[in-house]
Design goal:
This protein is an alpha+beta fold. It has a domain at 2-93: SH3 type barrels, CATH 2.30.30. It has helices spanning 82-85, 95-124; strands spanning 20-25, 30-38, 44-55, 58-69, 74-79, 91-92. Strand 1 (20-25) and strand 2 form a beta hairpin. One of its GO terms (cellular component) is Lsm1-7-Pat1 complex.
Length: 136
């Protein structure tokens, strides 16, 4: 029967439907939710989605509900092992406590990436992201 299903990149997601998944996006966001649907472009529909913010050994969560993710923004997709999930040694904290610290970390990372990009462009001859030569 498996030989009747043509191999495609998104075809391997069949086993992941209706399971709790972690999705890491290009902008660094981490989303947890139940994968309900996908298409040939790896666009995803997550239900009961939670966005999680990390700082050190702490994390905060924001409920997002149903979330549609464009496939080109997905960096990583992985199934959550429900048996091991509760054993992770991280402490939940209120979202309003961790979000300002997370935002500060994000802005610092953005500045570092801009400086690195500038050096790569001016000294090493790399193209800028989204610039000429950065096509698929």
């Amino acid at each position: 029967m498996d030989s009747l299903i043509p191999f495609t990149t998104s075809g391997s997601l069949v086993d992941c439907v209706d399971k709790k998944m972690l999705v890491v996006l290009r902008d660094g966001r981490k989303l947890f939710g139940v994968l309900r649907s996908y298409d040939q472009f790896a666009n995803l529909v997550l239900e009961d989605t939670v966005e999680r913010f990390y700082h050190g050994e702490n994390y905060g969560e924001v409920r997002r509900g149903v979330f549609l993710i464009r496939g080109e923004n997905v960096v990583l997709l992985g199934e959550i092992d429900l048996d091991v999930e509760d054993e992770v040694p991280l402490q939940p904290v209120p979202q309003d406590m961790i979000q300002p610290v997370h935002k500060e970390d994000f802005e610092a990372r953005k500045r570092r990436e801009a400086a690195k990009s500038s050096v790569l462009f001016t000294q090493k001859g790399f193209s800028r992201e989204g610039g000429e030569g950065d096509w698929y």
